[in-house]
Design a protein that fits this description.
The protein has 638 residues and is of the alpha+beta class. 23% of the residues lie in helices and 34% in strands. The protein is built from 8 helices and 43 strands. The chain is globular, with a radius of gyration of 26 Å.
Length: 638
């Protein structure tokens, strides 16, 4: 009885700790601070804040402090790093029980309701139809009641999709499950359960896999990239390795390149001889691509590494880390070339200038900085914003830097002095991206204020009228010749605009759901879009009309669509577990579907356009013949 009473008190305490907090906070605690085996994990406060900000938690500092005040979490400093964990082991079973009960309840409810789902859906829709029909015929039902009935129908449908999605996730049918969760959110944006579950899946890649899979020495493939000559492919994986494969045979070229934790990225050096990997084990390593042997010592940070990039000549590597530093390393030895380039908070990104002499970093500490790559000393004053800086990019000639910030502005700065070149380029919402035109004279920005804008890089003045969407604009890019801009928006459209006037060049390119990617063809004549409406389409840039009436159809979300180097073909990657090559001019398949056993995350052409490499959540990458869709080689399995 005493034990039961104690459990009840703890349950109430646990639930009250999350009262009024965003669902993402609870998922963070349950997914990050307790392992799959039921043991307490510690997590750095800085990394926790980065994760919660990525999940759009408005006040992550306050959310964490609230749990510390409630004594659900404790914070300790170890070796100069502040770490979070559950206050006591007695809480661990409670967290596990809550996590397990939630999933079991969702599965149980779905089992009970699945058979009735179709009938119920039809009944609800008929009921709604009758409500509206009655409104039209008799005029006796108020608009408010009609809207209420419509809302109720949407909530019911959304709940049904959520339960179906949750069940599919439990069954390890990741692609289908995430599609149902997305539809649940589209139907009812206030479905917090669906938002939280989809958030957990995307941010943490927590796909509710059965526990026994933890005993496998395998993991999802995070990236796949051709070597510069197209002969080899390098993959990075959640199984703690990266591997180089022969693109023609699918056989390993070398031994696995082993880390102690997930490998997030792997890329070839400019000459293709080496590979650089970045891992959650807080290290970056350079490897001989032909042997898989380390070229140098590990390049160690104290926290997660966000990016790693070779210099243009391949001699150095620059890294950016959540330990508040960026560093330049000698690729051949793994030794630091220079002093750490220090920020006050997470360093989001680090990029070499075109000539390799300087590095620009972007940080959560509200600044971007340019550094001397050889010494690690600042070249210029900090480039200051009022909130975190999402990105910092050099202009094509390396003279200027453009930054995009949470403070609703983008700015162009003199790389040599850190002084503003122009006035702030102001939006009325956060700036998601900022990019120079090919000649470096203009900047295009995309913002949460539903607009994209082109600005004069020297003055910061608008070049043209705002390019307006009905919802947030999350991507904007120049055409190869710099004359046009293509934007993608949450309003289910992509649009091409005249960069000099801001006027639409063509009609909106309409999808039935969100547009996930946009890309100009190499000659700028066409645009290809990929959408959650399960299609990709090629559009005429000057008219906005589909190039052909047929769309490129999948059975699940289309994650990406990319032109071949010559612009003749398009390759798509989809949640329906396939990638496909299509004729851009006709929309017809060029080849058979390239089939995986789970969601295909990415697909890209080899440099000569003959082959396609795909990366999938089924833990494999594969190389395919673009003209036939047949595998060129065995699966590259992690």
């Amino acid at each position: 009885m005493v034990n039961t009473l104690g459990d009840d008190i703890l349950d109430v305490y646990y639930e009250e700790s999350f009262h009024g907090q965003p669902a993402a906070l609870r998922y963070f605690v349950e997914d990050r601070l307790v392992s799959g085996g039921g043991h307490r994990n510690s997590f750095t406060r800085e990394d926790a804040l980065c994760d919660l900000r990525a999940a759009a938690v408005a006040n992550p500092e306050g959310a964490i402090d609230a749990l510390i005040t409630r004594r659900l979490l404790t914070e300790e400093e170890r070796g100069g790093i502040r770490r979070l964990e559950l206050t006591h082991d007695i809480l661990t079973p409670l967290v596990v029980r809550s996590r397990t009960a939630r999933r079991e309840q969702e599965a149980k409810l779905e089992t009970q309701r699945q058979r009735r789902r179709q009938v119920k859906t039809i009944a609800v829709m008929v009921a709604v139809s009758l409500v509206f029909a009655g409104l039209a015929l008799f005029g006796g039902i108020s608009y408010q009641r009609a809207e209420k009935a419509k809302l109720k129908a949407q909530q019911t449908l959304s709940r049904s999709d959520f339960l179906q999605g949750a069940t599919l996730m439990e069954q390890d049918k990741t692609g289908e499950g995430m599609a149902y969760l997305a539809r649940a959110i589209r139907t009812d944006s206030n479905n917090v359960s669906a938002v939280a579950r989809l958030y957990s899946a995307i941010v943490y890649r927590h796909f509710c896999r059965p526990v026994f899979e933890l005993m496998k020495h395998e993991g999802g493939v995070n990236s796949a990239q051709f070597s510069p000559d197209g002969r080899w492919v390098v993959t990075s994986s959640g199984d703690k390795t990266a591997r180089v494969w022969d693109a023609a045979t699918g056989k390993p070229v070398s031994e696995p390149m082993k880390h102690e934790h997930d490998v997030n990225s792997a890329q070839f050096s400019p000459d293709g001889r080496w590979v650089v990997t970045a891992s959650d084990d807080h290290t970056v390593r350079v490897w001989d691509a032909a042997t898989g042997k380390p070229v140098s010592e590990p390049m160690r940070h104290e926290r997660a590494v966000n990016s790693a990039q070779f210099s243009p000549d391949g001699r150095w590597v620059v890294t950016a880390s959540n330990d508040k530093t960026a560093r330049v390393w000698d690729a051949a030895t793994g030794k630091p070339v220079s002093e750490p380039m220090r920020h006050a908070k997470c360093a989001y990104s680090a990029q070499f200038s075109p000539n390799g002499r300087w590095v620009v970093t972007a940080s959560e500490d509200k600044t971007a900085r340019v550094w001397d790559a050889a010494t690690g000393k600042p070249v210029s004053e900090p480039m200051r914003h009022e909130y975190g800086v999402y990105s910092a990019l050099f202009s094509p000639d390396g003279r200027w830097v453009v930054t995009a910030s949470e403070d609703w502005t983008a700015r162009v700065w003199d790389a040599a002095t850190g002084k503003p070149v122009s006035e702030p380029m102001k939006h009325e919402g956060y700036v998601r991206s900022a990019q120079f035109s090919p000649n470096g004279c203009w900047v295009v920005t995309a913002s949460g204020d539903k607009t994209a804008r082109v600005w004069d890089a020297v003055t910061g003045k608008p070049v043209s009228e705002p390019m307006r969407h009905e919802k947030y604009a999350y991507s904007a890019q120049f055409s190869p010749n710099g004359r046009w801009v293509v934007t993608a928006s949450g309003d289910k459209t992509a649009r091409v605009w005249d960069a000099a006037t801001g006027k639409p060049v063509s009609a909106p390119m309409m999808h039935e759901d969100n547009v996930n990617s946009i890309q100009f063809s190499p000659d700028g004549r066409w645009v290809v879009t990929a959408s959650n409406d399960r299609t990709a389409r090629a559009w005429d840039t000057t008219t906005g009309k589909p190039v052909v009436s047929e769309s490129m159809k999948h059975k699940g979300w289309v994650e990406s669509a990319e032109f071949s180097p010559d612009g003749r073909w398009v390759v798509t990657a989809s949640a329906d577990e396939t990638a496909r090559v299509w004729d851009a001019a006709t929309g017809k398949p060029v080849s058979e579907p390239m089939k995986h056993e789970d969601w295909v995350e990415s697909a890209e052409f080899s440099p000569d356009g003959r082959w396609v490499v795909t990366a999938s959540y089924d833990d494999t990458a594969r190389v395919w013949d673009a003209a036939t869709g047949k595998p060129v080689s065995e699966p590259m399995k992690h």
